[in-house]
Specification:
The protein folds into two domains: 326 residues, Glycosidases (TIM Barrel), CATH 3.20.20.80; 133 residues, Trefoil (Acidic Fibroblast Growth Factor, subunit A) (Trefoil). Helices cover 29% and strands 22% of the residues. The chain binds 2-acetamido-2-deoxy-beta-D-glucopyranose (4 copies). Belongs to the glycosyl hydrolase 5 (cellulase A) family.
């Protein structure tokens, strides 16, 4: 699109490029604007589904932070329940599971945990007359909110739960739950009121889970090994050799406090990012840094390193300021590297929990932090996940020179796509995705970028030919993004999500 303000910037860039031509023989921004990038997902921000084996060495690796557990008493056959969602004593009186019967773990170590209930209170013990009652009232976990889970040897689905007073919890008459079991614990009989059947109802496998799961002694070694082997120099050569010209690199906020980030995070990801810049420069690739995990988590998902599904980002100014400081730090660090092309201020903040107002406030501050160091690094603004209007950032972006709206395009994760046939899916991309991009591509508007798309869908049983048509159709539509696109992701145990696999197996040729 002919965009006045960007044209003007382009002239500035061409001018400064020519200065560079004269001085170093190099041209900066030679790819304006046809970015063909691949995401380096699951590298510096862990996503367990991309590389499940990363979690193999964790003891009790089904008891990770945020995993919701449900406990069914073997004596009365009923589920433990946080009545009213929390704030009251627990009871073992429910026959079906709702959110109130789920207990999200906070892991202390391999066997010791806090349990968080629906309204974010923690389970604890409290003296009530003669009995030690089990309640869900505390807003923060301390000694009396700490429990040990003891599994039956040889049958990990049976557990006992030991409270801080040294007693196991048990289910009494009238379904009352107390922490005072004094019976035998060597047997696991069906009439034992301290025995529960545990079921894990959903899991999260993010950076918090992997680092806290291994704990402070093992995590540094495991993570550094992962960073050094998952993505290596050869991958950058492969990327450059196969028609791509850029990488989008998800990073976590803790990278800015390397080498000693707050626990459970581990130092060393900054060194890996340094290497990525070195190799990008060597193979002529551009780098888009993407703040994928912001302090407190901006969407509650594992890929933003939420501890237990909560979303805290934006609820306090501190989380915004901390994020701006990360952007400031990263921009300053790489501003002199000719490969540094763009920085994305935050990835997929989730609507409506993150309000447009909060996001705009942050985007303005983050933009300013980047411009303090550089007038030419592009500033990417991710659309909100779940926002109904894909153009909601356009008015803001119009006022921010060199800003880019990042629009993610998956044909997944929604019931809408479940029963679509291949032609229907292709048609949906041609019409819907094309229309949405065109809505954002406004005169005098910002640049556009499809920062995440992939060649997987809900359709089952697609042939190689189907997948190739899927890719082709998407590429044709994403051409409308004025800056370009980035495939999600380079490597993944799920083949269609792995650009490396797709290229090596002849599904994609660029
Ligand atoms: C998991 O929890 C949800 C409530 O969030 C419940 O509807 C579902 O039945 C549970 N799954 C199992 C297998 O119990
Ligand atoms: C786990 O933490 C609890 C509570 O701090 C402690 O008593 C226990 O010894 C720890 N266990 C291990 C295996 O480190
Ligand atoms: C998809 O098809 C199945 C089987 O025909 C049906 O049960 C289901 O309701 C459909 N789902 C949607 C979202 O249309
Ligand atoms: C694209 O499809 C989504 C639902 O899948 C819908 O909410 C949205 O309005 C559509 N956009 C356009 C421009 O038609």
């Amino acid at each position: 699109m002919a965009i006045f303000s960007q044209k003007k910037q382009l002239l500035v860039w061409i001018f400064s490029s020519c200065l560079l031509c004269l001085t170093s023989g190099k041209v900066s921004h030679e790819y304006d604007f046809g970015i063909k990038a691949v995401n380096l997902g699951g590298w510096l921000v862990t996503e367990g589904w991309i590389k499940p084996s990363l979690f193999d060495g964790i003891v009790n690796n089904d008891f990770l932070d945020g995993n919701p557990l449900q406990f069914k008493s073997v004596t009365n056959g009923k589920y433990l329940s946080a009545k009213s969602g929390g704030g009251t004593p627990l009871a073992a009186d429910q026959t079906i599971v709702s959110d109130r019967e789920l207990f999200r773990l906070w892991r202390i170590n391999d066997t010791t945990f806090n349990f968080r209930v629906f309204n974010d209170r923690f389970v604890g013990i409290e003296n009530a007359g003669k009995q030690t009652q089990v309640v869900a009232v505390s807003k923060t976990p301390a000694k009396f909110e700490t429990f040990e889970i003891v599994r039956k040897p040889g049958d990990s689905s049976l557990v006992r739960i030991k409270a801080a007073n040294g007693f196991f919890i048990q289910v009494n008459e009238e379904n009352v739950v107390t922490a005072d079991y004094a019976g035998y614990t060597s047997r696991w009989k069906k009439d034992d009121p301290s025995v529960f059947i545990v079921t894990i109802n959903g899991t999260a496998h993010g950076e918090y889970q992997v680092t806290n799961g291994y704990g402070p002694e093992k995590a540094p070694k495991v993570m550094r090994e992962h960073w050094n082997t998952f993505i290596v120099e050869d991958d950058f050569k492969f990327i450059a050799d196969n028609g791509l010209n850029a990488v989008r690199i998800p990073v976590g906020w803790w990278i800015a406090s390397d080498p000693t980030p707050p626990l459970p995070y581990v130092g060393g990801s900054l060194k890996a990012l340094d290497n990525a810049f070195l190799w990008s420069q060597k193979y002529g690739l551009k780098v888009i840094i993407d703040l994928h995990a912001a302090p407190g988590s901006q969407n509650g998902y594992e890929h933003s390193s939420s501890r237990d599904g909560s979303l805290e980002w934006g609820k306090t100014d501190e989380t915004l300021q901390k994020s701006v400081a990360v952007i400031d730090f990263l921009t300053a660090r790489y501003v002199k590297n000719p490969s540094f092309y763009a920085i994305e201020l935050i990835n997929e903040p989730r609507a409506p929990m993150v309000s447009l107002e909060t996001l705009i406030k942050y985007y303005k501050a983050g933009y300013k932090a980047v411009r303090k160091h550089s007038s030419k690094v592009y500033v990417m603004l991710s659309n909100r996940l779940g926002a109904t209007d894909p153009t909601e950032l356009v008015p803001l972006a119009r006022g921010l020179k060199g800003s880019v709206i990042d629009y993610h395009s998956y044909v997944l994760f929604s019931a809408d796509f479940k029963n679509m046939t291949v032609p229907q899916i292709l048609d949906f991309i041609r019409t819907n995705r094309s229309a949405e991009l065109n809505l954002i591509n406004k005169a005098n508007g910002p640049l556009t970028f499809v920062g995440e798309w992939t060649a997987e869908w809900e359709y089952k049983g697609g042939t190689k030919k189907d997948y190739m048509r899927f890719v082709k159709t998407q590429l044709k539509v994403y051409k409308q993004a004025t800056m370009g696109w980035a495939y999600w992701t380079l490597k993944n145990v799920n083949n269609h999500w792995s650009l490396e696999w797709m290229i090596k197996n002849g599904y994609i040729k660029l």
